[in-house]
Amino acid sequence: MTETRVLLENIDEPGLNTIEVYERFGGYGAMRKALLEMTPEDVLHELEESGLRGRGGAGFSMGKKASFIPKGSLDKYLCCNADESEPGTFKDRLLMQKNPHLLVEGCVIGSIAAGANRGFIFIRGEYELQADILDAAVREAYEKGFLGQRILGSEHSFELVVHRGQGAYICGEETGLLDALEGKRGNPRLKPPFPANQGLYQGPTLINNVETLCNTPGIVDRGAEWFKSMGEGNSTGTKIVSLSGNVQRPGNYEIELGIPAREIVYGLAGGPPEGRTVKCWFPGGSSAPVLKEEHLDLPYTFEAMAQAGSMLGSGAIIVVDDAQPLVPLALRLAGFYRHESCGKCVPCREGTSWTVKTLERVDNGEATPMDLEIMGQVQQNIIGNCLCVLGDSMAMPIGSMLNLFRDEFEEHIERARRQRDLEDMGVVSQAGAA
Amino acid sequence: MRRDEGALHSAPLPPGWDEANRLDDDPATVPDPATVEVPPALRAEIEGHMAKYPERHSATLPALGAAQRLHGWCSPEAILQVATVMQVTPAYLSAVATFYDMLRTQPTGSRYVYVCTSVACHLKDAKSVYDAIAAEALEQGLEGVEVREFECLGACEMAPMASVDGRYVGPIATSEAAEFVTAVREGRDPFPGRGLGDDK
Q1: Assuming Cys at both sites, which of A16, A266, A298, B13 could form a disulfide with A271, CB separation 3.0 to 4.6 Å?
Q2: Tens digits of residue pLDDT in B60-69
């Protein structure tokens, strides 16, 4: 057993989603401590000291982000990004469904650090069950006086609203989320100004992922030193990894950052099905460049994944076994980003579309090796040229597949072309492939 | 797809793309509350949403969602009613509605079946599950239900899976498509025990 359960410690406890059971396990103790025994500066300092990095994808220091929020009596906001749409990721769903009060408590602590008086949990519309559970949890917290005006008699007031999205991947991008929350199409904004200065309703806004906020009660309660004692280097604490794809035991596992990826994929998830080997794996959601089998020996940290040319991202590991042809996978992946591109920036809107068309040509044997060349260049021209990283999120994994598995793409073209020729000559029928 | 069909239209064109705009009409303005009748329950729900935010526009998504639940889709009538309560133009609302996958701008059904065919489900052959369900829906004459492929629904450990009006269910085998569609048609939860949150 190599799991280190902190966030998931009591996750299977029946009724944990109710405030009674949550409080029985010490829930809202950290909030009490933060409000009554600590100053907002202390809370912020503790979060910065802990080295907690954002769990949504970018991995930016949470404490540092909160410290960017200007001081003074402005209208400041806290947004919890619960628009978990990155293919392969389902950790926030588990936390919200089973332990919603942990998130509510985390939101209050985040709001103390940021000096925010209003907060919104932006949850994706598809999570109807989880949104209902969160709504009930927020209601319970209001009844107990853990939300609202002058919480527990302190100076701090905080209003929290659960806001449901209506299905758009781009709303997980922080500025797209803000536009969606303001009731517009979820198009990302130009940065700077960053949300910390000018976010929701033009006010300073702290935006954090569900898992990030869920980590804050533990840090406040047990201290930054405790949090730092877990993990490795600049990747402190635990991380919930979502295992999916060709593994025997898919699911959420909480691990200490720094354990070898092999231990996660084989030890926890049971590895690929009997008789299969790992062809490649996405270490952090479908936006992360794929890595090969040998990279499984790397420690699972933000740094090691970045050094290997990929990223830890949202912590979603998708395993692809050797029976899977890569071209249909790449096509499916690119199709996703084409559909979800908001269309605001040309490189992303056109780049995702042309990548899909080129991959379709590869798939049906019309492409030439030169098309692979061009497709590689298209990926290069997307990266870094848009307001947000949606285009990059396609360009990076597709680019990495082209680099690592170039032979397979060429063989696929050749095989599909021969098949087509045989069909044209009437040697085989179109439906029944020989 | 055969190459003769041309690769240019690899994306399904959005419904209504070839409908002409009525260029002679004046753009619709903010509706006059005195002339548009809005069901009281819908009005109350939208006003409740508007009160939750410092800015009333923030209620756009929940309000459109509420209108869709009532009308089955974001019909011109539904949009007009929301515009009346929120005091915005219908064009503003339809611009928002067309952006989001869960808001229906065509009368495709008042219930939904989203079959995930994204990366993790793709690796578990979700496309054939979707094809089987779509074929079966046609065969059984499933009506009033929007059946479509959907992007990652965030339940990859259940792959291949689907969401039936918000209830996540999986894994679904291709051979179970008929049973699945029958349950949906009869308004039952398909595969009890295999849904997310069934264990509670």
Answers
A1: A266
A2: 999 999 999 9
Alpha helices in chain B (DSSP H): 40-51, 60-71, 76-86, 90-97, 119-122, 126-139, 177-185
Our CA angle for B171, B199, A141, nearest 5°, is: 120
CA quadruple A222, A224, A229, A232: dihedral sign: positive
Of A170, A83, A194, A165, nearest to A345 (Cα)? A170
Please, are residues B112 and B157 in contact by the beta-carbon 8 Å criterion?
no
Three-state DSSP at A369 gives: helix
What ipTM was assigned to the predicted interfaces of this complex?
0.92
Is residue B173 less than 8 Å (CB to CB) from chain A?
Answer: no
Amino acid in position A121:
I
Q: Which residue in A166, A318, A364 is closest to B102 by CB distance?
A: A166
Of A201, A316, A356, the CB nearest to B55: A201
Across the interface, of B1, B65, B196, the residue whose CB is closest to A164 is: B65
Mutation to test the B interface, candidates A89, A244, A430, most B Cβ within 10 Å:
A244
Question: Which member of B1, B61, B168 has the closest CB to residue A183?
Answer: B61
Cis peptide before A193 (omega within 30 of 0): yes
| Of A6-20, A199-213, A335-349, B1-15, the least confident | B1-15
CA distance A107 to A99: 13
CB atoms within 10 A of CB A235: 22
For A258, other C-beta atoms within 10 Å of its C-beta total 17
- Beta-ladder partners of B164: B113, B167
Tell me the mean pLDDT in the region A353-359. Answer: 95
β-pairing, B145-150 vs B111-116, is parallel
For residue B99, the chain A residues in CB contact (below 8 A) are: 168, 185-186, 342
Whether pTM exceeds 0.90: yes
- How far apart are the C-alpha atoms of A385 and A345, rounded to whole Å? 8
pLDDT of residue B12: 66
Cβ-Cβ contacts under 8 Å, A316 against chain B: 156
pLDDT in tens, A53-102: 999 988 999 999 999 999 988 899 999 999 999 999 999 999 999 999 99
Contacts of B196 in chain A (CB under 8 A): 97, 129
Cross-chain Cβ contact A336/B118 below 8 Å: yes
Q: Which tokens sit at B138?
A: 């046609």
Substitution target in A13, A21, A76, A90 with the highest count of B β-carbons within 10 Å is A90
- Examine the pLDDT at A1 and tell me if it is beyond 70: no
Q: Any CB–CB contact under 8 A between B122 and chain A?
A: yes
Distances (CA, A) of A425 to A418, A421, A422, A431, B134: 11, 6, 5, 14, 33
Q: How far is CA A88 from CA A84, A85, A186, A256, B63, in A?
A: 10, 8, 22, 20, 30
Q: What whole-number distance in Å separates Cα of residue B85 and Cα of residue B50?
A: 10
Q: Which residues 76-105 of chain B have a CB within 8 Å of chain A?
A: 95-96, 99-103
- Interacting residues of A6 by C-beta distance below 8 A, sequence separation 6+: A215, A218, A230, A237, A238, A254
Distance from CA of A337 to the nearest CA of B (A): 10
